[in-house]
Amino acid sequence: MVTSAPEKKRLLSxxxxxxxxxxxxxxxxxxxAALFIITGWSVFEIFDHQMKHAVWHGFTAxxxxxxxxxxxxxxxxxxxxxxxxHYSADKRAGLYRHAFTRLSLLILLGIVYNHGWGxxxxxxxxxxxxxxxxxxxxxxxxxxxxxxxxxxxxxxWLISISILLGxxxxxxxxxxxxxxxxxxxxxxxxxxWFDQHMLPGxxxxxxxxxxxxxxxxxxxxxxxxxxxxxxxxxxxTQHQAQRLFVHLFAAGILILVVxxxxxxxxxxxxxxxxxxxxxxxxxxxxxxxxxxxxVIDVWRIQTWAKIFAVIGMNSIVIYLSTSIFNWQYLAxxxxxxxxxSVPEGWSSLLLIAATLLLQWLFLNWLYKRNIxxxx
Length: 375
What we know:
transmembrane helix; two-stranded antiparallel sheet; membrane; transmembrane; 15 helices; DUF5009 domain-containing protein
């Protein structure tokens, strides 16, 4: 992990969208439940439902947060990375070193986010949850950067398509014991066999399979590669802003249509990270980026965007802090008198707002001092 200022000009829309993505897991997802209590309006109940993960099959807005982050990591690759042959030998060594270090750190930090082994020292290695959100981000980014460095663009496309189709056929056609063979249940999907036989340590809540388990890493790579393709297209076409927006918007709609049609055959499922889920999240991610790019980088309406960019520039820091630091306790310590003096719905709303404010002020303090902690 290093601390440094950004080295090159960045697209504000990408940083703002990353910050917007993180905003919802900093505590903002609770706004709609509080607003429903205050107003009784059913629209807020609907929005609140969208701020919870689908129980198994299906899709909600909250299910997009994780794949959107992976997609944006791919966009950054597409905007900056080149085939490895374009770099000098010394530069290549540094790039490889950085890639392996980043992968290792994200896996390690993911274990920290999961509170390590959970039983204290001395460690019981069988009680460690090795897989995590950060670990999956690291794996998807690592594979994507390797593909960009070493393969032609045509082959990058072929591998991405092959992963989606291959993963579908794998879950649909392969049977191992009682698992697989088109079974997409939480107890008998093929992923369960892989996690029970090949995944060390424990699974999330000791379930039969882990939502960040072994097999579902494969399609998440395509989320990163889709970001690469979009980032590369932005870099090549940003001088034609209107055309870029139209093409990204059209691509997003088309991918969504294909994803939802595929979902009639292969269930849309985040825990299994099915190919249909992958396409749907790529479609929504592309649409969001197209909208943010139009408003922020083309129309230059940027004041609001900088609020989210402050979060996006130190996204890993704030993500980790939500696990290892009790922001709500701090907010209640400072604003508890005000929070307790208002009715129940308003108290929840004020506490959420205060928690978000403290987190944002911390990130803004880092931002103003050009402290950007990157992995």
